[in-house]
Amino acid sequence: MRADLIERYDLRVPRYTSYPTAPHFGPAVDGARYERWLGELDPKTPLSLYLHVAYCAEMCWFCGCHTKATKRYAPVASYLDALLAEIELVASKLPARMAFRHVHFGGGSPTVLKPEDFTRMVGKLREHFDMLPGAEIAVELDPRTADENYVIAMAKAGVTRASIGVQDFNPVVQKAINRIQPFEVTERVILWLRKHGVHAINMDLCYGLPHQTVESVVETVERGASLRPARIALFGYAHVPWMKTHQKLIPEEALPDMAERWRQYEAASARLQELGYVAIGLDHFALPDDELTLAQQKGELHRNFQGYTTDSAPALIGFGASAIGSLPQGYVANEIAIDRYREMVHAGKLPITRGIAIDADDELRRAIIERLMCDMGVDLDQIAALYGKSGASFETELEAMAGLEADGIVKREGHRVVVTEEGKPLVRAACAIFDRYLTAGEARHSKAV
């Protein structure tokens, strides 16, 4: 990518895992409104469930998640009791017993739980919800804290997919981000997963970390791909120490500049494709026969809080401190502070502290942004027609794209917008033009590249 483009579009824009995005949630949506929204759901609506385990054994300094590090199990056990109580509470507010087709356990780290407690958590879901045929149960897994007994418990509980956190295999980088994880540790856990029947494996890698170089990132990509995970996510590190104070422990002088970040992304992306992976959207890669690849080919790829997905469920229910849910009426977010979250749940209150109701215009703009993020292009006439509108209603946005078009980031043909191959890393800048909530220059988001 040209140096002038890197300089010009060194912007802070949302990752667009939702629209409107979380910084625009507010207190107008509370537990009472959430209860009404839950009661209004069609009982036949397939659900997606997310459970947030808000603890880790150790804090990784690059982490942007809502989590706490603890060496004691008592806080984890106490938190789990609240999480199980929330499942019962939410289920009691639904119009009937409903069914799910996707479950995702995230964190923090679900592997901080004891195996029997993970089994108990899955059992609680099955107690209150039905599981649709072919449902996916996915778990984020820290290879440093998962032993074979944990993997066995996961497999017996019905887990179908494991997402392995790696970030980088280089010891110097690992030390700088406080995540010491030798290649052999990751390899061993993946062997256990396959041995016990969990064959759908994701791997998270990262560029833009301290002390990374183009060569070291490519080496990490090659080592990760040698384990042949079905999917690899290649994220750009978001350095936001004003939001995550533990990131102040990362030496800023060791962070690559924007031009170097781009070179790392470009080299890693090219190498993954040489190794047989298909580029999915902005930052995911999948094997040719993976469901994610097939969904992209069919134009059925989606994007939610976990990134690119095949999950098209119209309602996502989040459980746990800081968890976010998405319903046809809008978004809801749980209390972030663990102690307050626990108090609210045990008092019989839905722990919602913020959210946002959406209208028809939000739904249309969300659809446009999702297609841009997933397909690298959008036919505004086609999308707008689904909402009883015309692509002509976005003339202002199309005019605002003149700069992106002049820079070769997008091409326009009437009311159709296509992101160019060179412009692909900057697709979020194109999405931001359709974001009516975004304030220019707002510094609450991560860099566009």
Describe this structure in words.
Strand 4, helix 4 and strand 5 (130-141) form a beta-alpha-beta unit. Helix 3 packs parallel to helix 4 and helix 4 (115-128) packs parallel to helix 5. This protein has helices at 3-8, 31-39, 74-93, 115-128, 148-157, 171-176, 183-195, 214-226, 258-274, 291-297, 338-346, 360-375, 380-385, 395-400, 402-406, 427-432, and strands spanning 47-53, 55-56, 68-69, 99-107, 130-141, 161-167, 200-207, 231-236, 278-280, 284-286, 302-304, 307-309, 315-319, 324-327, 330-334, 352-357, 377-379, 410-413, 416-419. The chain is of the alpha/beta class and 449 residues long. It contains 16 helices and 19 strands. Residues 440-445 have low confidence and may be disordered. The strands form five sheets. A nine-stranded mixed β-sheet has the order 9-10-8-7-6-5-4-1-13, with helices on both faces. Strands 14-15-16 form a three-stranded antiparallel β-sheet, with helices on one face.
Any key phrases for this structure?
449 residues, alpha/beta, 9-stranded mixed sheet, 3-stranded antiparallel sheet, 21% strand
Annotation, overall tally of beta strands: 19
| Strand coverage percent | 15-25%
Instruction: Give the proportion of residues in helices.
Output: 25-40%
Q: Residue ranges: pLDDT <50 for 5 or more in a row? A: 440-445
Report on the biggest sheet: 9 strands, mixed
Query: Rg to the nearest angstrom?
Result: 21 Å
Helix- and strand-based class?
Answer: alpha/beta
Q: Count of helical segments?
A: 16
Spatially, the strands of the biggest sheet line up as 9-10-8-7-6-5-4-1-13
Head-to-tail CA distance between termini: 11 Å
